[in-house]
Amino acid sequence: MAGRVLVWGGGGVAVAALAGMVAYSAAAGLDRADKLASVVGACVAVAGLAVAVYGLIVDRRAAGGDTAARAEGSGERSNAIGGDNNGVVSSGDGATVVQQRARASGRSRVYQVGGDLHVDGR
Q1: Which one-letter DSSP state was computed for residue 118?
Q2: How far is it, in rounded angstroms, from Cα 109 to Cα 87?
Q3: Helix (H, G, I), strand (E, B) or coil at 91
């Protein structure tokens, strides 16, 4: 529910910003509006870079400096595997064993499915 409110709120802000830009462009002229848009765009880019660096620092501190994979599972039949997995994981009624091979390097992810898959990036 909170995610939906944030999405609608962000959409409302975007629509309001677009309406404001159109109104300003009509009132001030395209040349002046272009100059203002360049300055605003540069400020937004710098702010985005600062937020990205802050997020990286917070993530590293939360991991205690450890960059190993973390995984959490919740629920009656959940499986959570962090790091390397060389085994077979099978759960559920009448589960079958499916073996797949994949390689990933760095901070990449591999999702392989032998049935239904729901990936939630949280």
Answers
A1: -
A2: 17
A3: coil
What is the residue-level pLDDT of the chain in tens, covering all 122 positions? 677 888 899 899 999 999 998 898 889 888 898 998 899 999 999 999 999 999 988 887 876 655 566 677 777 777 777 766 666 776 777 777 666 778 888 888 777 766 666 666 55
* Relative orientation angle of helices 2-28 and 30-62, to the nearest 10 degrees: 150
Contacts of 47 (CB under 8 A, 6+ apart): none
Alpha-carbon distance 94 to 32, whole Å?
68
Q: Tell how many helices (H) and how many strands (E) occur in the chain.
A: 2, 0
Q: How buried is residue 17: exposed, middle or buried, by Cβ count under 10 Å (0-12/13-18/19+)? A: exposed
Q: Hey, what amino acid is at 79?
A: N
- pTM of this prediction? 0.42
